[in-house]
Amino acid sequence: MTGPLLAADNISKFYDGRVACDKVSFELWPGEVLAVVGESGSGKTTLLKCLSMQIALSSGRVLYSLRDGRMESLADLSEAERRFLMRTDWGFVHQDPREGLRMGVSAGANVGERLMAVGERHYGRIRDTALDWLDRVEIAGDRIDDSPRHYSGGMRQRLQIARNLVTAPRLVFMDEPTGGLDVSVQARLLDLLRGLVRSLGLSVIIVTHDLAVARLLSTRILVMQQGKVIETGLTDQVLEDPQAPYTQLLVSSVLQV
Amino acid sequence: MTTGYNFAYLNEQTKRMIRRALLKAVAIPGYQVPFASREMPMPYGWGTGGVQVTASILTPEDTLKVIDQGADDTTNAVSIRKFFVRTAGIATTEETAKASIIQTRHRVPETALSENQILVYQVPIPEPLRFLEPRETETRKMHALEEYGIMHVKLYEDIARHGHIATSYAYPAKVNGRYVFDPSPIPKFDNPKLDNCAALQLFGAGREKRIYALPPYTEVKSLDFEDHPFSVQKWDEPCALCGSRDTYLDEIILDDKGKRMFVCSDTDHCRKARGEEAA
Amino acid sequence: MSLVLKISRLAKQFRLHLQGGVRIPVFDDLALELQQGEALAVTGPSGKGKSSLLKLIYGTYKAGGGEILVRHEHDWLDLAHAEPRQVLAVRRQTIGYVTQFLRVIPRIPALDIVAEPLLERGVAAEEARGRAASLLERLNIPARLWSLSPMTFSGGEQQRVNIARGFAAPYPILLLDEPTASLDEENKARVLAMISEARAQGSAIIGIFHDAVDRKAVCTREFDLDHLKSDKA
């Protein structure tokens, strides 16, 4: 691949005249992990939802490089193509794992669903794949038939990750994936994510308010405030040599980066 | 026939509306067509959908058979048959081979049907995806985009939990290679009868306001896994009355010491097998 | 000998917006050339920008002006104006960096920290860990510590893990920020030996050495920042 995987072109989103995102543009290249950081109301979550087609843009375009090599504006895809994309080439890890899981079915079914959705019809193979993925996200194999209702928060989150990664997506969106988890659980999850990103060559766009998470996981940072991009660059550069006043304020407000 | 009612109870405009829905349904096998279900003189859950379909296709020359769980003499079957006698004055029969229209709840007749016959099913919940996806907006999209992954999730769960696919009735199937449908709560034993059937099969859900259809000789393939293929129920004993080993058997408890016997659920077929005349 | 790094007109100042926008100048018009196999010692009093120079070359600091041309995959790339992914590619293949202090990530075992640069290059896990183990051994980190996170190590042990990580994969350019500080004589000697070996294999070194003896032991040239004062703020 010789071009960016995803390109945001002047994305704006308004709610009743209030600006949530203001002309955000950037490119995401394969293998990059982009952290979108900002405080509450910065527009980072709105941006993520715009990029992942969960809400409609007010203006601008999102371009994505499809598996066949075409670079298409997402708005030009048919609904069938969009939904297929979201089920196979993309992942979305929600802050609350209950939003990204089927709580009423077993862990194995949760992981296997995407496979069944693209035509996998061999129960044994589906189950083996599910076991393999549970192992990769450090969930004991004997929990495969348990419903995620019986899982802890950290386990649910890891299950959500497995469910998303089973179809080898090229792009994963994450919305505060460690939010609400205990610190030690967070650390374990972040290690897992780091390892998976590297071993699978994932490209990730992760929204977080936690600069430590951004530092650990991302290679690039986008700093947002009131819907605008204040600063962007290499993660260590933005965090160690912030240029913009707001970025300097943000970085200095954290105990240890 | 009682006077004061239009033929078969429904007015002609309503019949036209239902027939239009039926034509659509036949044109798109397995697709659920919404229709303006009418208030019928029986509550929802008692076959209003099937009755409306039958009423719309009935002609004075038809011979009607009504069965419920395979029997002609249960309360439901009797009252629906009487309803049509009173409002349409048509001939009725208990013999499958002699009927031109058969309305059924929860079973398919054992006797193979012909091209001259129509089978009308009573359907409680037409939407096979409903158990995992409660939103109508979402299920419609899933059908439109052929997104049936969750159907196999259900089957997967069955195997994970019970070691085999535990669904034994209302077993989902793919129609004409396109739509997944719920064949109504017939036992999965009957699913193979729907495949490539010579008769026209119509499905009516009154409360849910949906009609769907299988034109004659349509492919109906029950969902399964490669390593857990679809299979039908089997009994250890034959029918206690006619000795049949290839029909669906009901279990009848004889006393409170656990004594029971198995008899054909299809009463007409069993009678014929025994060589007896119909009542 | 071929040129691997060419810096011209490099300018850097810090602007502290939280302190009323006060400007801290670092340098103004710095030029530097580095040849393959050279070992350059950056000298000058504290606070004059020695670490900053290394960070600018590595891309951790943003240049205020000028060019930082690096020889990367048979072509020249200006790091001062490169895209983040290009800088990352340079860091993976061309420029290695041993920071002054190990940045510890909790829970990651020392062995994996050292193996990471190799894993990033696609080396198989077993081979990467094998090389990491031999480096840790060479730097006197006992095997019983390899599976532990360096969180609880002493300063010297942490620094040796850091150095091992920096030397795990071969780099055409190696940046070393006080690699021998907080080391005893024996470990110092080992590190200096490693630096010489890297040079012998063709790496170019830029290092900051507090100790003049260490500096003279490995470096072929000195680059004094004291002579490049920028204009007074």
Question: Could you list some keywords that capture this structure?
Answer:
heterotrimer; B: 279 residues; C: alpha/beta; 7 helices; 9 strands; 35% helix; disordered C terminus
Written overview of the protein:
The complex is a heterotrimer of chains A (257), B (279) and C (233). Chain A has helices at residues 44-51, 79-88, 97-100, 107-117, 123-136, 153-165, 183-200, 211-217, 235-240, 245-253, and strands spanning 6-15, 18-28, 33-37, 59-65, 71-73, 90-93, 171-175, 203-208, 220-225, 228-234. Chain A has 257 residues and is of the alpha/beta class. In chain A, strand 4 (59-65) and strand 5 (71-73) form a beta hairpin. The mean pLDDT of chain A is 92. With 279 residues, chain B is α/β, with parallel strands linked by helices. Chain B is 27% helix and 18% strand. Chain B has seven helices and twelve strands. Chain B has helices at 12-27, 48-57, 75-88, 136-144, 149-162, 191-194, 267-274; strands at residues 33-34, 63-68, 91-92, 101-105, 118-122, 173-175, 179-181, 200-205, 210-214, 220-222, 249-253, 260-264. In chain B, the strands form three sheets. A seven-stranded mixed β-sheet of chain B has the order 1-9-8-5-4-2-3. In chain B, strands 7-6-10 form a three-stranded antiparallel β-sheet. Chain B is globular. The model of chain B has no long low-confidence stretch (mean pLDDT 94). With 233 residues, chain C is an alpha/beta fold. Chain C has seven helices and nine strands, in the order E-E-E-H-E-E-H-E-H-H-H-E-H-E-H-E. Chain C has helices at residues 50-58, 84-93, 110-120, 125-138, 155-168, 185-200, 212-218, and strands at 3-16, 22-35, 39-43, 65-72, 75-78, 95-98, 173-177, 204-208, 221-224. Chain C has a five-stranded parallel β-sheet with strand order 6-7-8-3-9, sandwiched between helices. In chain C, strands 2-1-4-5 form a four-stranded antiparallel β-sheet, with helices on one face. At the A-C interface, helix 7, helix 9 and helix 10 of A face strand 1 and helix 2 of C.
